Amino acid sequence: MAGNRKMIYMSLLVACGVALHLVENLIPVPFPVPGAKLGLANIISLLAIALYGTKEGLQVNILRCLIGALMGGSMSSLLYSLSGAVSSTLMMGMAYRYFKNIFSLVGISIIGGVTHNIAQVTVASLVLSTFGLYSYLPFLMVVGLLTGIFTGFAAVFTRDNLAVNLSRLETTGKKEMKP
Amino acid sequence: MLKRGDKILIASILLFAVAIFTGFQIYGFSGGRTYAVIEVDGRQYQKISLGSDGPKLQLKVPGVQGELILEIDRDRVRVVSADCPDKDCVRQGWASRPGQMLVCLPNRVVVKIESDRSSGELDGVSF
């Protein structure tokens, strides 16, 4: 039972992630730095890490990237988003596991945002074989910092609400089961 | 809601970004030399090496119709005056980055800024 419940919640997270991924593609980027975006789907990977753990976070995030690319993206965008997602999820998972006392979810989200952008620049400069792209790195780091703060706060609010509602769901579920 | 570690993290990332940025500004990323290539009527007339140790001079270039006076100031070039009716080349101002161009159509004079690195800066990247 518990396994099924976890699987359902994780697939709900993937679905939310895909939706955010697609919505994010529709938002125009106000500044001309390539690769800068809001990273709304980061909220979902943070939640998966906070609720379940690094492995589950990775599963949710990779699935989200694959489905998102199938529904609206290209092979190259898949490459960029997958590399960013995997590295940022790994970093966030490690930070959550070992430095939970030092950083709040906001700090972990910042780590994820910045790592995501660094990984993307690295992959992009490997693909295009020009290391001149690294001159964008300072801007992308600041962008990652700001979007990380934003998605971090969003994740904190979502987690707190979700924790209340999930526990309510579980207790009502149990009450209905008993008789 | 922010913990102390978060604030330290934010400050250190900002510092790091500023450090990388100033590093790039000071040392420059391309590292390669830039040249001003002057072409008259499609043929190369002169190639001048630019940079912080570049020359500071004025140069007369014979065009097809008349004469142009170029000014080279270390790492940038401009057209000071030209024997043409529209003076578009004068109005283009300074050129210093690889890929920039000063053009005088009536005199068929083109001043291109080139870099010795084959692939210079990217025009755009699609994600």
Automatic annotation (TrEMBL), chain A:
Keyword Membrane: yes
Keywords: Membrane, Transmembrane, Transmembrane helix
Sequence intervals crossing the membrane: 61-82, 102-128, 135-157
InterPro entries attached to this UniProt entry: Hpre_diP_synt_I, Hpre_diP_synth_I
Domain of life: Bacteria
One Pfam family cited in the UniProt record for this chain: Hpre_diP_synt_I
Protein name, entry field: Heptaprenyl diphosphate synthase
Automatic annotation (TrEMBL), chain B:
Pfam family, one: NusG_II
Domain of life according to the entry: Bacteria
Protein name: Uncharacterized protein
Organism the protein comes from: Thermosediminibacter litoriperuensis
